[in-house]
């Protein structure tokens, strides 16, 4: 009997050991061949501000630009201003001098000298003629007085008296004509002398009659069209002046996006990585589009949107005309919206779904949303705040598959 019990005990032990070995082998095989958890990126559904925006690049430009031009043909003096210099309204920004006369040869100078001599002689002849006619007038006046007295005494006929008076009037008219000729000869002499004087070698015409042009506005020099002394004609641009504290932004958007922009829409303009953005509002949208070739070589119809800046003039002094900006135009905004990243959305027929992480497994769930953009979607139904969703699920992730969140890089 004892032998039989011992045999049965040994058999049970062997059976138990074999069962444990089979169980261990099964556990090892199950652990080795069961599907591993898929490592995924996740995000949390949360409430926040949902904004629909248009992001484009633009540039700053001056509200007012003033171009100083030459009012007449002249010789521009060398400017003392440089681009970026500050000027005040009324400051002298350019100086003009009369243009120097054309150079002449010795023959032409001799002709001018002879012309002065001829005019001088003509003036002398006119002066002598005036003196002669003055004497004639004096004699005619005496004869007219004598004829009046004789006519009163009845020594001569009235017709003789009338002839004497007419002779006096004729002498007066002749004297006036001679005096006019003398004045004309005097002006001709002055003209000839002026021509000869301007043609004299070694004369500095630029030192005579300087004309100062002043700044119409307080601002800074934006551009110098002329940087040295040179002759200029009427209407030649000399320099440009503007107030860099009065700027606006111009952003070109796709013509399809322009009708979506409401008047007065809020705009944020980024001018640099370390600079705070500039606030502004949409002032106007131009009614005419233009063609622009994108970086990919595609022709696009674009529209200019003008943005009025709500920034102090002192803060704009560090900027300037033509500076590039990154514009963010807000079309609509909603606070307290339930947001899910757009990267979590998967197309399902005519609708959308997301994979929610529950108990270490990805569960597919249909969702509806009110609006979405490239970053996030405004969820209307299907999700709750605080739930975790899978980002970029792709085509390999299935409903109920085990997942593991990827460790976030520190």
CATH architecture of the largest domain: Beta Barrel
State which percent range the strand residues make up. 35-45%
CATH superfamily of the largest domain: Efflux pump adaptor protein, beta barrel domain
Which structural class matches the secondary elements?
A: alpha+beta
- Helix percentage: 25-40%
* Number of separate domains: 3
> End-to-end span in angstroms?
72 Å
What is the gyration radius calculated from CA atoms?
Answer: 51 Å
Which outline best applies?
Answer: rod-shaped
What's the CATH C level of the largest domain?
Mainly Beta
Number of strands: 22
Largest sheet: 6 strands, antiparallel, barrel
Order the strands across the largest sheet as they lie in space: 2-11-15-13-12-16
Low-confidence parts = none
Mean pLDDT: 82
H/I helix tally: 4
Order of helices and strands: HEEEEEEHHEEEEEEEEEHEEEEEEE
Short description:
With 410 residues, the protein is an alpha+beta fold.
Q: What are the defining features of this structure?
A:
410 residues; alpha+beta; OB fold (Dihydrolipoamide Acetyltransferase, E2P); Helix Hairpins; 3 domains; four-stranded antiparallel beta sheet; 22 strands; 37% strand; rod-shaped
